[in-house]
Design a protein that fits this description.
Layout lengths: L1 E9 L3 E10 L2 E10 L2 H18 E7 L4 E8 L5 E6 L3 E6 L6 E7 L2 E3 L7 E9 L2 E10 L8 H17 L1
Parallel strand pairs: 5-9
Antiparallel strand pairs: 1-2, 2-3, 4-7, 5-6, 6-11, 8-10, 10-11
Length: 166
């Protein structure tokens, strides 16, 4: 567990505390204001953090650059391109609800060249009881140039060479 805190007190504001903690990839912040004593401010912050860690979890659905799907490319120098997550996908969920999360993928099976690396190809969203928890863009891992006369001729030439070798 990581912990960070900042304390302060004045006659008017009484005893205050901002504290942060991390457990199992879940980071929480507790803020206590106008506590009557230093003992109370620390005790209340601990109660808030314990409540959060006992009742909520961070659900990670995928990491940045994870391949979601390989998409066929029409009229491209490459036959396909990997569709990857643009960023890590995850959200805060009440414990026990993670099994009810649904993944909705909005991504075509085929795309036409040219394609630039990082180009948005679609998105994936995660919902719980009809409410969207998180949406992440899906992007092209690499660029795919559009096939032209030169690249087509080159491809045909290499195919002939391969046939002659076998």
């Amino acid at each position: 567990m990581q912990l960070g805190l900042k304390t302060g007190s004045t006659g008017l504001a009484l005893y205050n505390l901002s504290a942060s903690a991390t457990r199992n990839n879940l980071s929480l912040i507790a803020v206590i204001m106008k506590a009557p004593s230093t003992k109370v401010r620390f005790s209340e912050a601990q109660k808030l953090l314990d409540y959060g860690f006992n009742n909520f979890s961070f659900e990670q659905f995928g990491k940045k650059n994870d391949v979601v799907k390989t998409i066929n490319v029409d009229k491209g120098v490459a036959p396909s391109v990997d569709a990857i997550l643009a960023k890590t996908a995850g959200t805060l969920v009440k414990k026990g609800n993670s099994k009810n999360i649904e993944q909705n993928l909005n991504l075509a099976d085929t795309i036409s060249a040219p394609i630039e690396a990082g180009q948005k190809l679609g998105e994936v969203s995660f919902t719980l009881n009809g409410k969207t928890l998180s949406t992440v863009d899906i992007v092209a891992k690499s660029s795919v140039e559009k096939i032209n006369l030169f690249t087509m001729s080159k491809k045909v030439l290499y195919s002939w060479v391969d046939l002659l070798r076998s």
